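Predict the assembly for these three chains.
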Amino acid sequence: MSAIEEIASQAPAVDAVPKRAMTLSSGTTFVVVLLLLVVPLFVKNFIIFQMTMLLIYGLAVLALNILTGGSGQFSLGNSAFYAVGAYTSAILMEQYNVNYALTLPVAGVICFGFGFLFGQPALRLSGVYLALATFALATAMPQILKLGFFEHWTGGVQGLVVTKPDAPFGLPMSQDMWLYYFTLAITIAIYIFSVNLLRSRSGRAFMAIRDNEIAASAMGIDVATYKTLAFGVSAGITGVAGGLGAIAVQFVAPDSYTIVLAISLFLGMVVGGVGWLPGSFVGAAFIIFVPNIAEGISKGLSGAVFGVLLFLVIFLVPHGARQVAMVAQQLLGKLRKN
Amino acid sequence: MELFTNQVLAGIATGAIYACMALAVVMIYQAIDHLNFAQGEMAMFSTFISWQLMQWGLPYWVAFVVTLAFSFAGGILIERVLFKPLTKAPILTQVAGFIALFSIINSCAGLIWDFTIKQYPTPFGSSPFLGSQLISTHQAGMIGITVLLLIGLYFFFQYTRVGLAMRAAAAVPESARLVGINTSWMIALGWGMAAAIGSIAGMLIAPVVFLEPNMMGGVLIYGFAAAVLGGLTSPFGAVLGGFLVGVFENLAGTYIPHVGNEMKLPIALALIISVLVIKPAGLFGRNIVKRV
Amino acid sequence: MTALLNVKDLRAYYGQVQALHGLSFSLNEGSLTTLLGANGAGKTTTLRAICNMVRSTGAIEFEGKPLNNRSTESIVRFGIAHVPQGRGTFTNMTVEENLQLGAITRSDKPGIVADIERMYSYFPKLKERHTQQAGTLSGGEQQMLAVARALMLRPRLMLLDEPSFGLAPLIVRDLFGILGKINREEKVSILVVEQNAQLALELADRAYVIETGRIVMSGAAADIANDENVRKSYLGY
């Protein structure tokens, strides 16, 4: 802890993360990308599917991370943006025969607009109040999707079945593998975009707002614009993830996008390390695999086992995977010196 | 007009449930400065304990008091074992801890008492109250206990040394330590009291919503909403917020078309948020002046 | 005279940064001692270290009993009242509640009531405003409230961190007058950290000068005030 933190009576809700510490070094990045490219060639289809889901949830967690870790705004409502993205893709593909790849930018843009609009009233709120507002959005979304008024498009409670796309150009790979590489390409693109966003002028504005809103406004940062922008970007990325999710799962239904999803995304962010973008994917792995592990340990008590595992993680590394990475980096540095 | 008054009355009756829960929410918020998402589950677990005691043959009020003591001790224990080590962790990590606790308690209760719905007795009976079809004696009793609890808490915080110390510890921890207050124990005490109040809420609510591990899910959300609406710093606001939310919800169900049971919650929340957008610290909350 | 407070080889750290580099000093029973030094010299840190509010090593003894490794609140219970920088007012509470909080470790109810009245006689402004929220008081009134709150402990030793900070000169005179009176009449030993060196040296009987976490000079306040270096660096003539 620094002297300033000791003295500051009111610490900000989100720890300040310097922007250089938000990413991985180029060497590590190279290894990770190589693994992501090669591993699917050697594993079963089901595992490829799980890896696809990992990337998709990773994107959704990343989006939340930009909002919370970047601009200091908290959201329990990102499941709603995910749902809007998923439904946009599903409806365009199934009702209007739009190519799946083209539905994703549409989902992104619609969600960006939705998030930007939602960010307007949210400007007045912060902390628990913002949490409650976003929570309301998350609980309302499944109900809205079920409304009879929209049933013509959404399929109501039944939801919609989505066809899984084949690999294009007659490429000799399974649907699952094609979708994986397709998702990977989008993930990498969005990841690069996010890293650059946070390094840009806007990113610095986000972080200034996160660390001290009043000081940021005194420096001439248009707090309202940047806060809503952060909401928009976060929602847009979540929407793309939702669209990909709909294609991967081949099904959308209102009850897939409840508050449980929002809480999962939140846990993913905490476990990965708030404000550390690569951690989003570690967090995604946690929310996909740990419930399964818990189920494996005890069927009747899977919830309790999950809770205990979560407690273990936050006791050992309260700052999430980011902390592990930092310790590892220090150790590596020491080894190199010796 | 009669429909309107009746619905308002019915709303107040349901509101008593939310008010009771909101009181527990404010209690913990005062002690630890954030919301405990596992509070509803703690209340549910306490209610099961009291149910078990009655199954073993204890009279209602004895079970009530024993449960109160158990919950108080349990709340302190949870704080000492699970959350004290996390004091220095980031706030969002602590929130993740609440979610973990939620999951553990819910799962354990399900394993011990299974997920079937159970009847839960009421000490007040359930005949119409003063001839009104809308409020039963149980609901009247519930409102009465909530109000009593509120008065008790008011006196505790306003006129006792421990209450004063707890307020000081929550408001300015560093200064509190400098006058010799053990702030860490004040937090534990806050947990204990919140757990005890939560258990009262649980035992009062159980006859209405029936006893099962997921009984508090909805109630806690309304309780949060009520506390936030009333202003998280004001027990009085929380209780009033509870009644308001109950009335909101009922009127929305009556007067807005196409509102099924499931849309009630989002609409109530939307209303609350519109209030918050106008008055961000809640109806009775203090505005905290922010400094650079 | 015996030493009430004895500090030996005190080192304090904020994270990796060391703020005190082996500080030693003592404070006699009944004395009014001042710590002088520029910004960042370690004055505040010294006071915070005595109350274990920063990580530190070295020996701190109060009436011969070691204070190290005790929690802040238990150190207070020894009779050490700390008036922190920024006054530490409980802004949401009334003036009277603030005073009651000062005596929260005591259990003699009549004594507490009498002491509150005594504080009101020292600081009549506080009596006028006793039901007001403390946050609405002016800076000077809040400083008086902070001193009064500390006295409610019936302390043996009072630590004051820049009591003159942000106050108008007249109010500072007033406040320092009261501090001297408390020291003489109530036999409360006082350790005061000040930037206003002139005033502090007039008031104190002993003085220490700190530079970058080390004591560079010590002696009777009058001697220190006459020292040429001190005069140039801190008094400005």
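Strands of chain C lie at 3-14, 17-28, 32-36, 55-62, 65-66, 80-83, 157-161, 189-194, 206-211, 214-220. The radius of gyration of chain C is 17 Å.
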